[in-house]
Specification:
8 strands; 2 domains; about 325 residues; alpha+beta; C8orf32 fold; disordered N terminus
Length: about 325
């Protein structure tokens, strides 16, 4: 099994080291076979090296997470675990190259399907444009502190996409995630988050939305349903944003803040979020909301300490599966 070969600069450069890392991993798994779940790991490696995964790096990133989870939960040889880490590093390097503009990523198209692989692109109507740029009580982008912060970011930006990236990285890196850093104040509105320089994933998404909307960039709110402990119940909502780009349409970003095991980036058109959905009852909720969910705002305004908030994180009920 080898990567699908295409005469394209991206495949010749950015993916060459990544291809080698996957091949080394596969060879080691074969050498060590059999061990617990080695068949599952081999299957996922072959899936990651398929044309579809090379053409959709988000899918490949999800597979890396899944392979890592399988290895952690199994008696996997140390040599295999080390090579999984190497694959993860090479994948991050590819995303760095895309984000830095060192290489360009233009997903190819199959002969059967000429549509883009990652985005359903439609232009926003005037109504939608207004809907996703509105000022509100929570996304209060008209606040003087938001405007001032936006102007500082704008001064360091060369174009609209550069501003989006800089605003994203400002919220991701300069605003402390309240649980990671054990801050004591629960923030909700965009101006509160900026004032206290801290917030939950929900609150940080509110600030990022305000910093984009003040420049008339459409942005909405997305949610994932995730396991709080990565091993089943309890579940909670995780908040992130979707920003509208002229070139690619809606693009999801997660400014919750990076840490060990979390490496969210702004690298359109490749999506790299903080977390991947890996369990049966986890979900990538498909809606793009123009305002934060009421249950999110209620939680942020009800619980007056970070400890109480994280003991009462909001969740949603899943719809039952359709039966035919």
């Amino acid at each position: 099994m080898i990567f699908y070969q295409e005469e394209h600069h991206f495949y010749k450069t950015a993916l060459s080291d990544l291809q080698g890392a996957w091949l080394n991993l596969r060879e080691e798994v074969v050498n060590q076979h059999p061990f617990e779940n080695s068949d599952r790991i081999l299957f996922q490696i072959d899936e990651a090296m398929s044309w579809e995964s090379v053409n959709n790096l988000k899918h490949m990133g999800d597979i890396i997470t899944l392979v890592k989870n399988i290895a952690v939960q199994s008696e996997t040889p140390a040599e295999v675990v080390a090579l999984i880490g190497q694959v993860k590093e090479e994948f991050a390097a590819v995303l760095d190259d895309i984000g830095d503009g060192t290489i360009a990523f233009h997903p190819t198209q199959t002969k059967k399907d000429k549509r883009p692989q990652q985005f359903s692109f439609t232009r926003l109507s005037e109504i939608e444009q207004k809907k996703y740029t509105e000022n509100s009580t929570v996304i209060n982008w008209q606040h003087p502190s938001i405007r001032e912060c936006s102007e500082r970011i704008l001064a360091k930006s060369n174009h609209a996409c550069d501003y989006m990236k800089n605003a994203f990285e400002y919220v991701r890196d300069k605003i402390l995630h309240s649980r990671d850093f054990q801050t004591q104040i629960v923030t909700c509105t965009a101006s509160e988050v900026l004032k206290h320089k801290s917030g939950s994933c929900y609150a940080k998404s509110h600030l990022l939305a305000a910093l984009l909307r003040v420049q008339k960039i459409p942005v909405g709110f997305c949610y994932q349903r995730l396991s709080q402990e990565e091993n089943g119940p309890p579940y909670c909502l995780h908040g992130l944003n979707a920003v509208y780009t002229e070139k690619y349409g809606w693009y999801r970003v997660d400014a919750r803040g990076n840490k060990e095991g979390v490496n969210a980036r702004f690298t359109p058109p490749v999506e790299q979020l903080a977390f991947s959905v890996t369990e049966p009852r986890e979900r990538d909720l498909p809606e793009i909301w123009s305002e934060p969910l009421p249950v999110i705002v209620h939680a942020l305004q009800t619980f007056n300490s970070v400890e109480k908030l994280y003991d009462n994180l909001p969740d949603v009920q899943l719809l039952p599966a359709n039966r035919t």
